[in-house]
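Ticket #4471: complex job returned nothing on first submit. Input attached below:
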Amino acid sequence: MRNIKMKVSYDGTNYHGFQKQNRTGLRTVQEALEEALGILTRENIVVHGSGRTDAGVHASCQVINFHSNTKIPAARFPLAVNSVLPPDIVVYQAEDVSADFHARFSARKKTYCYTIFNERQMSPFWRFYAYHVPVWLDVDKMREGADGFLGTHDFRAFCAKNTAVQNFTRTVFDCRIEKEGPLLRFFVQGNGFLYNMVRIITGTLMEIGKGRRESGEIPVLLAGRERKLVGQTLPPQGLCLVAVEYSEKP
Amino acid sequence: MRNIKMKVSYDGTNYHGFQKQNRTGLRTVQEALEEALGILTRENIVVHGSGRTDAGVHASCQVINFHSNTKIPAARFPLAVNSVLPPDIVVYQAEDVSADFHARFSARKKTYCYTIFNERQMSPFWRFYAYHVPVWLDVDKMREGADGFLGTHDFRAFCAKNTAVQNFTRTVFDCRIEKEGPLLRFFVQGNGFLYNMVRIITGTLMEIGKGRRESGEIPVLLAGRERKLVGQTLPPQGLCLVAVEYSEKP
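Support reply: We reran it on our side without changes. The output follows.
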């Protein structure tokens, strides 16, 4: 049986997240992909994503894999699947990979980008893709704060309360802020992420940028392990999964 | 009576163009602005735009003016109007101007940008803001072609058939193509534009980029004055009004 890996981009605005829900009536990206691949292959396809994204969260590069006996060459998949998918989900690359490749378990690094639109008035073009902060943010201070997340830590304080996870230790390889005109892009790269972790990290950095917190307090907050002492969870529309890396070319 | 000038940005996706329609049930940007300003000033407001934009066309900078006796200071207008407007229309600047300023008749130069997304697969994030061209386009050839539009010409061949206009002479000051990753941005600056003119200019340049036309044939097409001999009208979602210039600060 073939194991096919795909790179997928989606606008999460109209989806209840990536992962299939038990409740009906909640449209998810995984279901849309499974349906489209099912039509194409005439098989029951199960899609594995590199990770779930929440309702309203986007992906410019989500990686998935699925098993199939289809004879369709991998190079033909993007165009074929896109002809069946709705226009807010796009497959842009597909390849056959070895049997042991799993989009989630084989992933070594993931990168998320959180976008803040930092102008007095919001742009109508960014309303689904950024969070609006109308007051001035001190980017230098936020960058100082961002450095505090680097390394391996217990990230319990930066995780939503409603999680079943037992192990809160994650490694953050990169946490940097790029400014492009009115846009502030917060890139966070790690070996894995807890529930809402990037949105809470960015929310805490934003409070540093507003002068409500000190840039040096991140290590204290990490050590404190108390969700209620750190910043707010920023809304989903600013978040985008931008890269997933694997240890070797599968 | 005050004459107030405003800069407005809008996502035209859900509007039947800028200008108020006689038919009911077709939502337009002008109506949305007049309603919001009416609520704010408690007057019957008539909005004059620098020009109409078609259904689905966007503006990152549309200029409007209106007359009012309101006592609201101009600097307060953006926040106040935006609190009443839907999120796809945003006012980002307002100022009092002299009585003879008219957003349309005082305008000297307007700049439109047409965006083509030039990759094999479309990006879901650009589906409302760009036109997808999946085949390679020869940007150098298109730039050669663009030069042919510079200057004062009879643009009859580059105007939709259904127009009441008598004078087809317009001056194009600038016609250039910028490449930003997969995006091709066609900027056209002129003293005025005929119906669908930018979308037909870009459509003709695209055909040059595909190798279906010669880059040197623009002067011939202009001289020919025949709509049916030039390129297709590209769809509205790629078009955006990006600047309106006035002869002096009003």
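The mean pLDDT of chain B is 95. Closing as resolved unless it happens again.
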